Amino acid sequence: MVKYVISISLILLMIACSSVKKQPVDYVDPFIGTGFHGHTYPGATVPFGAVQLSPDTRRGNWDACSGYHYSDTTILGFSHTHLSGTGCIDLGDILFHPTTKEAKAVKDGYTYEPLAFSHKEEKASPGYYEVNLQEEGIKAELTASTYVGMHRYTFPKDANAHIIIDMAHSLDNEHIYELYLRQTADNEITGMRKTGGWVDNQCVFFVAQFSKPFKLKGTDRQSVLTFDVTDGSPLICKVALSAVSGANAMKNMQEVKGFDFDQVHQTARNRWNDVLSSVVVEGGSDAEMTNFYTAMYHASVVPNLVSDLNGEYRTHDMRIDSVDTGKKQYSTFSLWDTFRGWHPLMTLLDTTLVNNTINSFLTIYDATGELPVWPLASGETGTMIGYHAVSVIADAYMKGIRGYDVDKAFEAMKASANKNKKGASSYIELGFIPSNSKKESVSCLLEFAYDDWCIAQMAKELGKMDDYETYINRSQSFINVFDGQTKFFRGKRADGNWDTPFDPLEVGRAYTEATAWQYRFFVPHDVNGLIQLFGGKQAFTDALDNLFTAEAVKGDLSDITGLIGQYAHGNEPSHHLAYLYSYIGQPWKTQERVRNLLQTMYQPTPEGIVGNEDCGQMSAWYILSSLGFYSVCPGSNQFVLTSPIFEKTTMKLGNGKELIITATNPASNKYIDKVMLNGKEILSNYITYEQLMQGGTLDFTLSAEPNKTRGTKPATAPYSYTNRNVASIPYVTKDADLFVNQIEIALYSATDGATIRYTLDGSEPTEQSPEYKHSFVITNTTEIKAKAYLDGYDASRTFRLKATKAVFRNALNGKPSANGVSYIYTEGNYSLVKDVENSPVVERGIMAEPSIKQAKKPDHFGYIFSGLINVPADGVYEFYTQTDDGSKLYIDNELVVDNDTSHAAIVATGRIPLKKGFHSYRFLYFEDYEGESLNWGWKVPGTTDFTNIPANSLYITK
């Protein structure tokens, strides 16, 4: 009878335990994204915290961006700062390496062996990480508060217990400007280091306090702390950080009283559960619940707090400033990624964070004169393109989130738009960015145009109509690089001719981490205007369909992952593309595509994120899309609808209201049949921010088959600036640059039935200009302009092209005596080719042909090659360079190929007419970091392919 009672009790206990409802925090798996190229870390942090305490398993390569990769089997130690999901490496400050072994003394420090580990002996949850280092019998546990990282090490009580503090450790080859370590009590050590890596002048001060006293030996670079653990109790350490000073690090330590590791862990867990509970989802599969809450977790890891407990922070010009009471200063904003989805998500969930974000932008503007592009720590990396801080500000302002100086914000938006280093000057002057002088010219222009639309929206709201006209006109500049023949955005040279040859499947110089396919549809503010360029809805629809079935990408695929045809979910330019069907009356295709992406591009495994997580953007796409809407065009106040994957969602909105979203059997149904908001049907393919923030209930009636009657009318489409028919800009099919004798020009428009009017004298075409009826021949350099007209349509933008007649450069007199190439070798940290020219010479000499094989180091060097090249015949020669990280080629002192800051071995080309004989050249090259590549060649007149320039055609000069 007693056994029977006990058995019943055990069964009841098991039932009770199994019926305990999981909390949101219980679904999070921090290992998701630590494999493949997700670049996340599994260590301990709190929402938007200043400390990211995590194991470092590797350094110095692309998959070391977060310091941890799931494929690794050893741990270098545990450092206190990390990046989440980025594509560049930095941080890894203040490494702690626990060991029972004696470290080997070397000059300026010690060496130590990596610690072997197994994933079977590893655990992670929000705010906590644990690993058993079986070889040495050490159990390591990590947790964190906002400013403090906390370690708990359980050593074998009969072993030596050491902690090596490695101040020289970093995740890349950062330059160390300054560092120190000081023992300030029997259980306390303080330190500081200043480094230059992805961002320069990073200052990290710390104070570490231990639960046991220690003996110290070592140097400022590496010191060994030895502890007595014979009592069997764990060694606990707390480390407080500050970018301002050691005194502030000590003040930040006040956040954690004593050495109660479990209490700090529980507080971190509770903080995470509070943040994750802002969106409670129900009715999904275990995999979907894990994916969702891990996405919520990753969306709340960054940005990172950089102001201290007392409000002080280090500015971008290295001053110490202080935020107002109640405000916080943040950094780590991957804006090229996050403006698309993460920032709009925060406008729904956390308007306080949005205001702090914009105020952080404005303090950066105060220090630098520009809004941030990709800020990290107390500096600007300058990485990626656009000036997307203006998108974040305009989106918030248009949504009524205005807890910042609006006038200063608008001033900063305009200033940033007019001084951006990646082509703003030519974009403003010409309406496009010449591809022969700037890489990423097409991507930059398209993103500039969207950002300018954002400025225009805010200008209009502020009643600044002159500014509105300026920026709304600039926002239409995308038209200037649309090729009506191929129906792609293409690189355009300064004379108005297209880059040739053109292969939309290639990762090319004109695009940012993309092919022409992935940027084919990036006009989020004017999808209808883009449709007009294609010549109408059918051509656009066909192109969008073909996106998902096109051939594979050619070239460097490191940033182009998660492929379906040419759709690349692993990189952000594709994130809005599936939603464009809702602009052309086919919303069921959006619903089908998005559901497929949710199911295939996210998995609850270490490899479960198909590309760099990118500081929350990959996760924000999942969160928004799984809830049933996505922000295609931030600043429009609209979210495009799709079908939710959860039966019920409860959102705690940033204004204190609650929104409940329901969906009928989403596991079996992926198409929208009806949408009701608080009992009123929504007939459009979008929902507004204002509607969502009202709270209440948003009910989706879903079906297994598409409803092809809902959302098909033009009035149901989301916002586009162009709400009328516009004739597509004319185009030509020939390269008119450097023609010999004469050239025949034919003009076309993608708009059927359009009349083209043109001029050849540089004047602006009007309806009274000559009508184009058939091709014409020109024999001299001529500026061609044309516009397309059609009744019931607005006239097209003006097409401009300079057709240039070739003028052949004379060869030099005389004949050199010896083959070879003169070279100058330099070393330094270079970001532009001109830096090489201004650098001290390390070595001079002669080699057979340009080569970097003799470089004395793998990174941070440059070459200047020069001499004469023997041209075999009169003609127009096309030269190319393929270099990582940058190059320029001059022929007869004329810049022919500009491949400056190319990175990733991108090809650039240029043409020049030359007479037979010897011509001078200078070929400048620099290598920054990571891969090295140098190739050059030419296309000889009468041939179709590039070939290497023979070494016997190169001569040295006396």
Could you tell me the strand content as a percent range?
Answer: 25-35%
Enter the CATH topology name of the domain at 31-276.
Beta-galactosidase, Chain A, domain 5
Quickly give the CATH architecture of the domain at 31-276. Answer: Distorted Sandwich
Report the radius of gyration as a whole number of Å: 30 Å
**Structural shape:** globular
Low-pLDDT residue spans: 1-18
Mean of the pLDDT scores? Answer: 95
Level of helix content? 10-25%
Count every helix, treating DSSP H or I runs of 4 or more residues as helices: 19
Please outline the major beta sheet. 8 strands, antiparallel
CATH structural class of the domain at 31-276? Mainly Beta
Index terms:
alpha+beta, about 950 residues, single chain, about 20% helix, 19 helices, Jelly Rolls
Brief digest:
The protein has 958 residues and is of the alpha+beta class.
Explain how this protein is built.
This protein has 958 residues and is an alpha+beta fold. Among the domains are: 31-276, Beta-galactosidase, Chain A, domain 5 (Distorted Sandwich), CATH 2.70.98; 737-805; 821-955, Jelly Rolls, CATH 2.60.120. The protein has 19 helices and 54 strands. The strands form 16 sheets. Strands 8-9-10-11-18-15-14-13 form an eight-stranded antiparallel beta sheet. Strands 44, 45, 46, 48, 49, 51 and 54 form a seven-stranded antiparallel beta sheet that branches. A six-stranded mixed beta sheet has the order 19-32-33-37-34-35. Helix 8 packs across helix 9. It is globular. The termini are far apart. The relative contact order is 0.07.
